[in-house]
């Protein structure tokens, strides 16, 4: 009875509520749209600003200005033909200096610390390969270093790693030697030589890393005392 | 509270008749319906607007990121011309509030382009509008704003900006105050750059900013050193005809085209025609080779000290042989006498035919509107004219012609027009027409390399880049006759000669001799080093690695490479 008499009221309320809900949705959408439009405007403003700044930067760094700076301050000149390296062999030959004993020793130490991991456990006997001082050093430290020394010694498998590893040294040195020219090139944007340098320098360290890094976990796992390895090797070197 | 309304019988309507009451109800109903209808109409319109309006459509009408005038960029995307929103300061003199005298002084302090009395005159003119400064810097805008004069108006207008200032000014051209191109590529591309449909994408030119800068700085240095009145330079990709650099000095700043030297607007590379002298000799030799007249470079000619020709003229050499000389000798020592004889053998008809096919008898083929008409012997193309044209006199062409001629000669013998558009999907390499045989093209490499290795072009060599080329020193026609004092020196070079890729042409107009050049003002001394420096600077950028171990096939000229040419 009451329900019937309130029927119209309920209807009105329902319709009103539905309309309100619809309106709320529409309002929400409108808000989102406005928000989106605002972001769009911001994006456009940012893009304009970027363009403006690029233009300003380009104008300030125009070729004539760079030329002036070069003439007054930097005094860079175009690289000569001799500064371009055409193949890896030439690049490697750039390092003319013979390695001194100190160089070799230091190189050896680094090798040793790397090789402790690199050398397989079976690599024990070939210790006499290139460096007598190291063997002596190794013997001098019998207690903790003994197993390590065995690992550090060179094996036929490890040999290529050594030669490869020395390559990056040379490459690095060559790269270092090339640095000033490198700069000169960067100024004039000489690409081919840079590429050469990059290609020459890249593969070697990769090899080294690979050869040095791969076997390491094995031995570490086998030995179970990783912390000792480098320390021992360094100690043995210090003697 | 209840309000009572007393009905005054005076005003009260007479007792309604039944039909009258019905009418009133009808009217009321009608009015109510009208109101309801209007309300409904408005409501439905609102609803329609709410539903049917696409709000996103409003944004796409005009993309604010599309510049008022399209960008021009170089082949690597470096902007060469852009439109920016620049500040403009204007004044409405008729709405002035402050004292004109005071304002004029302050304006003159801030903008010293004009004097105070000039500003005063403007302020008192009573005009409704006048520009005070266009493309003003923000600092200036804020300083002028601080004057507090309400009649001064600040606005932002799209302005053309050339970020590289004078670089490649003659290629780009410039725009007038309305923003329309008046010369160069701005004029050529005017429609494309202003069309809203196309201006959004930048136009890529074939110019390489780095090469252009190298060419301009080296030429400018040489021009200053030898006190030349002008210079022009072209670097051309000889396989595609793309112009990587083209310059004409003196040049102006397209940002302010009104300023600068009087002849700065003149493009010497495409509009100026010059007798380019000995740089023509390789063409003559190539023609003779194509026709089978010159079979080997050791073919001998008689080269006396002077060669009398019809009309009482005598052709002379700067390095006379005074005896027999070979084709290689002629080219190496740049002998007019020898070349004249070869040209005479080629003959007027063949020579004209070759030059026509090379495009030397018509304005140079390039997009620019500034193209000069070449000067030729025309109807007087007799034997003497044939001989002089053979060594580059009596015919005047633009430096770009020369570059195109060398491109034709060394790209395998195919002539293609020069282009300032980067070759790509929209701009394919044109087919081209054959002028010289491939064999001739190949054999000429060694001959021109010889000129640089052991002849007049030694100073143009850039170690490792295998430059080949030919010097040219032509006397300038002054007041109707040649004088030895004023010359146009040119070097046309190609590198790397073992696999030609780029042509470099450099020209100096009226260089003077200096102590450093031992009193010479020939091309070998002034313009040769320009080419050497330019090639050293840009060779590697253009992908030519210098390699001292490589040389073109020199077997045909090996006998002439001995260093006996010492004089």
Describe the secondary-structure layout.
The complex is a heterodimer of chains A (239) and B (567).
Chain A: H1 2-5, H2 7-60, H3 63-74, H4 88-93, H5 101-118, H6 132-140, H7 145-152, H8 158-188, H9 191-201, H10 203-213, H11 215-223, H12 228-238
Helix pairs in contact in A: 5-7, 5-8, 5-11, 5-12, 6-12, 7-12, 8-9, 8-10
Chain B: H1 18-52, H2 57-60, E1 72-73, E2 79-91, H3 100-110, H4 116-123, E3 130-136, H5 138-145, E4 152-161, H6 169-172, H7 184-188, H8 190-194, E5 203-204, H9 209-225, E6 230-237, E7 243-249, E8 274-275, H10 281-290, E9 300-303, E10 306-308, E11 314-316, E12 323-326, H11 327-332, H12 336-346, H13 348-357, H14 383-390, E13 396-397, H15 399-410, E14 414-415, E15 433-434, H16 438-454, E16 468-478, E17 481-495, E18 502-509, H17 523-526, H18 528-538
The N- to C-terminal Cα distance of chain A equals 109 Å
Number of strands of chain A: 0
The CATH superfamily of the largest domain in chain B is known as DD-peptidase/beta-lactamase superfamily
Greatest interface and its residue counts?
A-B, 32 and 34 residues
* Count of individual beta strands of chain B: 18
Q: What is the CATH-assigned architecture of the largest domain in chain B? A: 3-Layer(aba) Sandwich
Overall mean pLDDT score of chain B? Answer: 86
Alpha-beta content class of chain A: mainly alpha
Give the biggest sheet of chain B: 5 strands, mixed
Question: What name does the CATH topology of the largest domain in chain B carry?
Answer: Beta-lactamase
Average of pLDDT of chain A: 62
Enumerate the spans of chain B where pLDDT stays under 50 for 5 or more consecutive residues.
none
Q: Per DSSP, what share of the residues of chain B sits in E-state strands of 2 or more residues?
A: 15-25%
Low-pLDDT runs of chain A: 112-153, 158-239
Summarize the structure in words.
The complex is a heterodimer of chains A (239) and B (567). Chain A is 77% helix and 0% strand. By secondary structure, chain A is mostly helical. Chain A has two domains: 2-60; 82-238, no CATH class. In chain A, helix 8 (158-188) runs antiparallel to helix 10. Chain A is elongated, with a radius of gyration of 35 Å. Chain A starts with a helix and ends with a helix. Chain B is α+β, with helices and mostly antiparallel strands. Chain B folds into two domains: 72-204, Penicillin-binding protein 2a (Domain 2) (Alpha-Beta Complex), CATH 3.90.1310.10; 212-560, 3-Layer(aba) Sandwich (Beta-lactamase), CATH 3.40.710.10. Helix content of chain B is 33%, strand content 19%. Chain B is built from 18 helices and 18 strands. Chain B has helices spanning 18-52, 57-60, 100-110, 116-123, 138-145, 169-172, 184-188, 190-194, 209-225, 281-290, 327-332, 336-346, 348-357, 383-390, 399-410, 438-454, 523-526, 528-538, and strands at residues 72-73, 79-91, 130-136, 152-161, 203-204, 230-237, 243-249, 274-275, 300-303, 306-308, 314-316, 323-326, 396-397, 414-415, 433-434, 468-478, 481-495, 502-509. In chain B, strands 1, 2, 3, 4 and 5 form a five-stranded mixed beta sheet that branches. In chain B, strands 7-6-18-17-16 form a five-stranded antiparallel beta sheet, sandwiched between helices. In chain B, strands 8-13 form a two-stranded antiparallel ribbon. In chain B, helix 10 runs antiparallel to helix 16 and helix 12 (336-346) crosses helix 14. The interface between A and B is medium-sized, with 32 and 34 residues.
């Amino acid at each position: 009875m009451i329900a019937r008499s309130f029927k119209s009221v309920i209807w009105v309320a329902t319709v009103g509520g539905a309309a309100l809900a619809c309106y709320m949705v529409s309002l929400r959408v409108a808000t989102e749209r406005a928000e989106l439009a605002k972001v769009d405007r911001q994006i456009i403003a940012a893009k304009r600003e970027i363009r403006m700044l690029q233009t300003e930067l380009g104008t300030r760094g125009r070729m004539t200005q760079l030329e002036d700076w070069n003439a007054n301050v930097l005094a860079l000149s175009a690289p000569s033909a001799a500064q371009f390296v055409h193949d890896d062999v030439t690049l490697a030959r750039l390092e003319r200096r013979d390695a001194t004993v100190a160089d070799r020793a230091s190189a050896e130490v680094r090798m040793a610390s790397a090789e402790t991991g690199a050398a397989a456990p079976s690599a024990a006997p070939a210790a006499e390969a290139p460096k007598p001082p190291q063997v002596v050093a190794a013997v001098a430290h019998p207690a903790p270093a003994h197993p390590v020394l065995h690992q550090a010694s060179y094996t036929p498998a490890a040999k290529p790693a050594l030669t490869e590893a020395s390559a990056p040294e040379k490459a690095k040195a060559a790269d270092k030697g090339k640095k000033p020219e490198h700069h000169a090139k960067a100024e004039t944007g000489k690409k081919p030589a840079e590429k050469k340098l990059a290609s020459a320098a890249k593969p070697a360290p990769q090899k080294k890393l690979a050869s040095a890094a791969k076997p390491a976990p094995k031995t570490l796992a086998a030995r179970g005392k990783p912390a000792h390895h480098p320390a021992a090797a360094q100690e043995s070197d210090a003697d | 509270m209840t309000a009572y309304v007393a009905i005054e019988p005076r005003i009260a309507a007479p007792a309604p008749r039944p039909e009258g009451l019905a009418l009133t109800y009808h009217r009321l109903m009608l009015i109510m319906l009208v109101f309801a209808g209007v309300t409904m109409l408005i409501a439905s319109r609102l609803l329609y607007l709410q539903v049917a309006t696409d709000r996103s459509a409003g944004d796409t009408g005009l993309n604010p990121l599309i510049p008022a005038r399209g960008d021009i960029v170089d082949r690597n995307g470096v902007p060469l011309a852009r439109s920016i929103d620049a500040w403009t300061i204007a004044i409405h003199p008729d709405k002035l509030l402050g004292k004109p005298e005071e304002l004029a002084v302050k304006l003159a302090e801030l903008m010293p382009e004009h004097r105070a009395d000039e500003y005063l005159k403007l302020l008192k003119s009573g005009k409704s509008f006048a520009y005070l400064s266009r493309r003003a810097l923000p600092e200036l805008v804020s300083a002028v704003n601080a004057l507090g004069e309400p009649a001064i108006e600040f606005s932002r207008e799209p302005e053309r900006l050339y970020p590289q200032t004078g670089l490649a000014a003659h290629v780009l051209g410039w725009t007038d105050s309305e923003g329309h191109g008046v010369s160069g590529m701005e004029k050529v591309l005017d429609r494309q750059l202003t069309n809203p449909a196309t201006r959004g994408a930048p136009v890529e030119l074939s110019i390489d900013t780095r090469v252009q800068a190298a060419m301009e700085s080296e030429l400018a240095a040489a021009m200053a050193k030898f006190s030349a009145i002008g210079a022009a330079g072209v670097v051309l990709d000889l396989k595609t005809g793309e112009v990587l650099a083209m310059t004409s000095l003196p040049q102006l700043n397209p940002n302010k085209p009104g300023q600068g030297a009087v002849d700065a607007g003149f493009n010497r590379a495409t509009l100026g025609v010059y007798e380019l002298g000995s740089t023509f000799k390789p063409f003559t030799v190539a023609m003779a080779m194509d026709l089978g007249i010159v079979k080997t470079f050791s073919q001998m000619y008689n080269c006396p000290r002077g060669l009398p020709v019809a009309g009482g003229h005598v052709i002379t050499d700067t390095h006379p042989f005074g005896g027999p000389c070979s084709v290689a000798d002629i080219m190496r020592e740049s002998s007019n006498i020898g070349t004249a004889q070869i040209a005479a053998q080629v003959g007027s008809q063949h020579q004209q035919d070759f030059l026509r096919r090379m495009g030397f008898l018509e304005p140079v083929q390039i997009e620019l509107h500034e193209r000069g008409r070449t000067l030729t012997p025309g109807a007087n193309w007799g034997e003497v004219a044939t001989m002089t044209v053979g060594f580059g006199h009596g015919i005047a062409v633009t430096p770009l012609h020369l570059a195109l001629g060398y491109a034709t000669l060394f790209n395998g013998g195919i002539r293609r027009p020069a282009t300032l558009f980067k070759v790509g999907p929209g701009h394919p390499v044109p087919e081209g027409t054959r002028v010289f045989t491939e064999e001739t093209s190949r054999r000429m490499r060694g001959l021109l390399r010889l000129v640089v290795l052991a002849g007049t072009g030694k100073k143009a060599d850039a170690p490792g880049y295998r430059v080949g080329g030919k010097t040219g020193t032509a006397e300038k026609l002054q007041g109707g006759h040649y004088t030895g004092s004023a010359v146009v020196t040119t070097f046309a070079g190609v590198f790397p000669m073992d696999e030609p890729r780029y042509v470099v042409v450099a020209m100096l107009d009226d260089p003077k001799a200096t102590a450093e050049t031992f009193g010479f003002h020939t091309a070998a001394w002034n313009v040769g080093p320009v080419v050497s420096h330019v090639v050293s600077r840009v060779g590697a950028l253009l992908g030519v690695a210098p390699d001292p171990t490589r040389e073109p096939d020199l077997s045909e000229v090996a006998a002439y490479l001995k260093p006996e040419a010492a004089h």
